[in-house]
Amino acid sequence: MESNIQKKVLQFESFINDVLKQDLAVLEKKLDEINSEIAEFLQLKSVINTIKNIGNKANGFKTKVDMGNNFFIQAEVENASHILLDIGLGYFVEFTLDEALVVIDIRIKLFERQVINLRKEIARTNAHIKVILIGIRDLQGLD
Questions:
Q1: Taking the alpha carbons of 3, 8, 9, 10 in that order, is the dihedral positive or negative?
Q2: In this predicted model, what pLDDT tens digit does every residue of 102-119 receive, in sequence order?
């Protein structure tokens, strides 16, 4: 009888470690990715608002552009009335600054919904882990 209990305890523990904790790690990674996407869109929104504010005062401006791996070059922007947004799969669409702000707000709302769903899924996985741990404790006769 005691060996059966130990086998069940080991099965439950391996299920927690091999399945549930890995699922939890995947969900947390997705959550981090989506949060970084939201941060990038918020930063882009801030940049667009800044461009809109200085666009009326000057005919162009100078800036530094990240070419990748934190390698920056100086650039001069003559007309900042339109912007290209990545819509996915390597495609870019040209928008006016106001249109881009609307698209960015919609994307942020979609990402926020995904964050809510992921947090619910993380909470559900954590609850499953706790329930199994309570079951293990009951099998072992601990309080």
A1: positive
A2: 999 999 999 999 999 999
pLDDT digits (tens, 9 = 90+) for 40-78: 999 999 989 988 887 655 567 788 888 888 899 998 888
- Structure token digits, residue 92: 């870019």
Cα three-residue angle 48-51-55, rounded to 5 degrees: 145
At residue 66, the 3 state secondary structure works out as: strand
- Neighbouring CB atoms inside 10 A of 6's CB total 12
The fold of 2-140 is Helix Hairpins (1.10.287)
Phi, psi of 78 (to 5 degrees): -85, -40
User: What pTM, to 2 d.p., does this model score?
Assistant: 0.79
Phi-psi region of 43 (alpha: psi -120 to 50; beta: other; left: phi over 0): alpha
Phi, psi (degrees; rounded to nearest 5) at 8? -65, -40
Least confident interval from 4-8, 17-21, 128-132: 4-8
